[in-house]
Amino acid sequence: MLRHETQTALVAGDRSTARTYRISLQTGRRSRLPALRIPVHDAAGGFLGGHSFVVGGGNASEQSAVQQFGRTRGWTTVTNLPQPRSDLVAVTIHHRLVVLGGFDGTMSQRSIVALSPGGHVSVVGALGIAVRYPAVAVADGAVWLFGGEHDGHLASAIQRVDIESWRSRVVGHLGQPLGHSAAVILDGQILLVGGRTGPSTVTSQMWWFNPNVSSLRRAGRLPYPLSDAGAVTASGAAYLLGGETPKPTKRVVRLTARP
Fold it and tell me: Which residues contact 7 (CB under 8 A, 6 or more apart)?
């Protein structure tokens, strides 16, 4: 099945944008969608019940709005998170959109929040370590969070969140602190991609992660250093959309696993 990515971000000049696009990962064709009701950057995105969602994000201040795209009405605000948060991540599990991590304007967040198709929002658990800007992937019956930022510093913790109990624990550490990276499932494995190893240092390094033993091994490099990219998988490939190099970029990178 071909999937599409709705992307929101900062544009040049560190301005939030309301622009959204649909990108065909098969043809590369891009089409403009209606504007968001609330311009945001550092938001989470996801798919639930056949709809695209943009969750939270930053603007002049952190936002709590959950914005949903409909074919006839465009973007509408359908509910709100328990508190504003940006720099968060989201994954779709058991017919719910699950939000993890983030920043409320004062501190990083530990609470794990689930959104149902009917718009009901509930807190289902808590992270062991509060983080913003982590990488996230779902594999082996768990949500995996990699690095991020904690208390103003880049983090190295690898957190595993059980998707049945929503209990979280730290199961290991990256070789170095890393934030603003992306994680994708490729060839049945988790691939951790790019990110920041310092406040102004962007890396092109990639790593394979083995959930069974919580270990990492190097997996080559991206064509250029990249952080804060949107990520989506489709038809056996992973795509990184936009991001920072460290300046904002509009390029799309396609990743495939070697035979």
Answer: 20, 21, 23, 45, 230, 241, 242
Please state whether the peptide bond connecting residue 246 to the residue before it is cis, i.e. omega within 30 degrees of 0. Answer: yes
Per-residue pLDDT reduced to its tens digit, 193-213? 999 999 989 999 999 999 888
What is the spatial distance between Cα 204 and Cα 225, in angstroms, rounded to a whole number? 4
Q: Which of 129, 225, 233, 239 is nearest to 180 (CA)?
A: 225
Q: For the chain, first and last CA: distance in Å? A: 22
State the Cα angle at 61 between 37 and 126, rounded to 5°.
95
3-state SS string over the chain?
CCCCCCCCCEECCCEEECCEEEECCCCCCEEEECCCCCCEECCEEEEECCEEEEECCECCCECCEEEEEECCCEEEEEEECCCCCECCEEEEECCEEEEECCECCCCECCEEEEECCCCCEEEEEECCCCCECCEEEEECCEEEEECCEECCEECCEEEEEECCCCCEEEEEECCCCCECCEEEEECCEEEEEEEEEECCEEEEEEEEEECCCCEEEEEEECCCCCECCEEEEECCEEEEECCECCCECCCEEEECCCC
Give yes or no for a contact between 14 and 26, defined as CB atoms under 8 angstroms apart. Answer: no
- Predicted TM-score (pTM) of the model is 0.92
**Residue pLDDT, tens place only, 65-117:** 999 998 888 999 999 999 999 999 999 998 999 999 999 999 999 999 999 98
Residue 132 has which token pair?
Answer: 């913003």
